[in-house]
Amino acid sequence: MAVAMVGGLATGALRAQTPGQEGSAPAAVAGVGDVARGAYIVESVAQCGRCHTPVTSTGERDRSRWLAGGPLDVAPTIARENWAMAAPRIAGTPPGTDEQFVHLMMTGISRTGRAPLRPMPQFKMTREDADSVLAYLKSLGGRERSIHN
């Protein structure tokens, strides 16, 4: 539930900020995903690394495998069905086509036509934010490290 709440807060934060506000993400270039804005959303607002980056033996996120996917170290507080046991790799090329990924970020509906398994939040990003997230993830290419270490 805490993860779902974080997702809801992240979505609200994305809508609440406008370019030019102190502390807001940089504005995206019209029609093109802005990598810096996407990095801000992924790393600071949505905190994708909390699930999509494996942990080390000391419990820290393994920055050498940034957004490479792996087993989740998050469990529901109450046992429930449809809980993901692993998060997919999203660095480089996220699962599905670019349009399917952007659709997921905008609607919370995956390429299967259903919401992804929890703890993945159902984001309701703007097209601009979703394009920026995709641009950032693709900028990681084959690398598994963030450009923001």
Describe what you observe in this structure.
This protein has one domain. The protein starts with a helix and ends in a 10-residue tail after the last helix. By secondary structure, the protein is an all-alpha fold. The protein is built from five helices and two strands; from the N terminus they run αααββαα.
Using brief descriptors, characterize the structure shown.
149 residues; mainly alpha; disordered N terminus; two-stranded antiparallel ribbon; 5 helices; disordered C terminus
Question: What is the secondary structure topology, with strand pairs?
Answer:
Elements: H1 2-16, H2 35-45, H3 49-52, E1 70-71, E2 86-87, H4 98-107, H5 127-139
Antiparallel strand pairs: 1-2
- The number of helical segments is 5
What profile does the largest beta sheet have? 2 strands, antiparallel
Give the percentage of residues in beta strands: under 5%
Give helix and strand order, one letter per element, not per position.
Answer: HHHEEHH
Shape: globular
Compact overview of the structure:
The protein has a two-stranded antiparallel sheet.
